Amino acid sequence: MRVVNAEQMRQIEERAIHHYGIPSLLLMENAAWAVVEEIRRCLPQGQVDFSGRKAVILVGKGNNGGDGLAVARHLVLQGMDVTVFLFAELKELKGDAALNLCLFQGTTGKCFVIEGEKQRRLTRLALAQADVVVDALFGIGMRGALPSLVEEYVDQVNRAPGWVVAIDIPSGVDANTGKVYRTAIRAQTTVTFGLPKWGLFLGEGPEYSGRVVVDPISIPASYLEDEGISAFVLTDDDVRKMLPIRTLKGHKGTHGKGILVAGSKGMSGAAVLAGRGALRSGIGLLQIVTPQGIAQEVDTAITEATIWSAPGDDFLNEEAWSVILKQSEKAQAFAVGPGLGQNLEFTLVLGDILSSLSCPVVLDADALNQLAIEPDLLGLRNGQGPLILTPHPGEMARLCECSVEDVESNRLDLAVAKAVEWEAVVVLKGSVTIIASPDGRAFFNPTGNPGLGTGGTGDVLTGSILAWLAQGVAPLEAACLGVYLHGKSADLLAGEYGWSGFTASEVADKLPKVRRELELKSNTGKEGMSLWGCDRFGLK
Ligand SMILES: NC(=O)C1=CN([C@@H]2O[C@H](COP(=O)(O)OP(=O)(O)OC[C@H]3O[C@@H](n4cnc5c(N)ncnc54)[C@H](O)[C@@H]3O)[C@@H](O)[C@H]2O)[C@H](O)CC1
Ligand SMILES: [K+]
């Protein structure tokens, strides 16, 4: 599914209204229905009956406020006790928003205009009793920080016991960057219209938006699939199509041979975990190359891989590297980095790896740190074969010679720019990992949870990507598959353990199960519209 910035969404909306002829009021009405349906799902056991329930709707002066007023009307008509707090003068509302104010005023719902501090008691009482709070203050039209009048109330809203549903984007979150200037509404659910906005996946957006639900509000699919939009969010449907197809006659030879160069003294676990990630992702043959000083440990821990005990005690030495390069010519995929340590021998050979191996090469961890010393080495790849880099923000900062803050405040643009410049697939890890392609496209990953923040999970990911490459999956898709399933695996574990306490080996071991679940899930059309798994936000 494509992901847009505010301007792109505005253009799509414009075309839907003026070229396709959909009345803007109908879009607003559809948007309101989508929110009402989501409110029904949020109430305990998806209660069908709204009567006796209380809702507070916070309304701004723009069309986001208009959506909120339409929601308010539907909730009143369905029996809810609804109070609207208007953060604007009545006369400020224009067009569809003004009409919806008028329609709401014709119902039994209550409407108060917030003018300053003096309504604080009223809002506090209403918020304390509300089952649902709807944030319709600002949508994609917001620029900069929330106005101070609104800010005075945000804290109250965020402490309210009811379910907070944001319309389109939580107010205070920048739709393009996810930046929160001072404060923002913290929603449990965000219902976004047309296509999801960049800001839901960047900066602080994910923290504030909760579970994201996308509704097309009847905008034609051809507009939502505009080729000019180059950012995407991965969905089950997308990723299922990337899975390689196995045939009855398949055997370990056809399931691909991958070489993993990993581990050093004290870091044998990295080689084991990456190996486990590869085997659990279905690789046919895995050869782990590791220094002889730790080869026995690795061999004992991972019986299914062939272990090449290579020259070198603590680290692989020069002699080892020359044989590795020669032997890897026949591999279908090559990954290097996990637990390798930083040493001179590797620095010297990195350029040769890039310039001589024609199979897809994955560089992770210490390989990226070495590369950061001499980023110009990337030029040696120069069309020799596919390259995948899997930096976390610290490694990316070193590679780009900037600060981690620079990386984090500019994740999307930086990942894309570097993927294009380096002609590599860049997997920029984070709470929302971005997979950027050399052709300028970028994919946000919606799976995973903070439980992945534990040693070894990155190694598992590298092994998994290696396995998909070895099975013949194209580099971009292999990276997407690896990242998405790795996150799903963690989400499955979070269902049992919450967001902490599961281990990297467990993440690897759940990979076949989540892959199988994905294969079995039929395409119902509606699935994939809800972007964050419930597990991520502990909703169920
Ligand atoms: N995308 C669609 O197809 C549809 C979107 N809908 C909803 O409309 C909003 C966007 O509406 P818009 O009126 O353009 O913007 P806002 O409601 O976000 O309000 C903008 C309003 O506020 C002023 N403003 C902006 N920044 C600030 C600030 N920092 N402080 C104070 N005031 C500010 C600005 O000047 C405007 O007056 C979209 O999100 C959807 O919810 C449709 O209803 C359905 C179709
Ligand atoms: K909003």
Describe the structure in your own words.
It is built from 20 helices and 18 strands. The chain is of the alpha/beta class and 540 residues long. The chain has two domains: 2-229, Rossmann fold, CATH 3.40.50.10260; 238-520, 3-Layer(aba) Sandwich (UDP-N-acetylmuramoyl-L-alanine:D-glutamate ligase), CATH 3.40.1190.20. α11 (292-301) links the parallel β11 (285-291) and β12 (306-310). α2 crosses α3 (63-77) and α14 runs parallel beside α15 (393-400). The radius of gyration is 26 Å and the shape is elongated. Potassium ion binds at residues 64, 135-139, 166-171. AMP binds at residues 429-433, 458. (6S)-NADPHX binds at residues 63-67, 139-145, 168, 270, 339, 392, 459. Homotetramer. GO terms for molecular function: ADP-dependent NAD(P)H-hydrate dehydratase activity; ATP binding; metal ion binding; NAD(P)HX epimerase activity.
Number of domains: 2
Share of helix, binned? 40-55%
Number of strands: 18
- From the spread of the alpha carbons, the general shape counts as elongated
- Straight-line N-to-C gap: 25 Å
Nearest-integer average pLDDT: 93
- List the bound ligands: ligand LP7C6HRI, potassium ion
Summarize the structure.
One of its GO terms (molecular function) is NAD(P)HX epimerase activity. Helix content is 42%, strand content 14%. The chain is of the alpha/beta class.
Tags for this entry?
eleven-stranded mixed β-sheet, Rossmann fold, disordered C terminus, UDP-N-acetylmuramoyl-L-alanine:D-glutamate ligase, alpha/beta, 540 residues, binds potassium ion, binds ligand LP7C6HRI, 42% helix
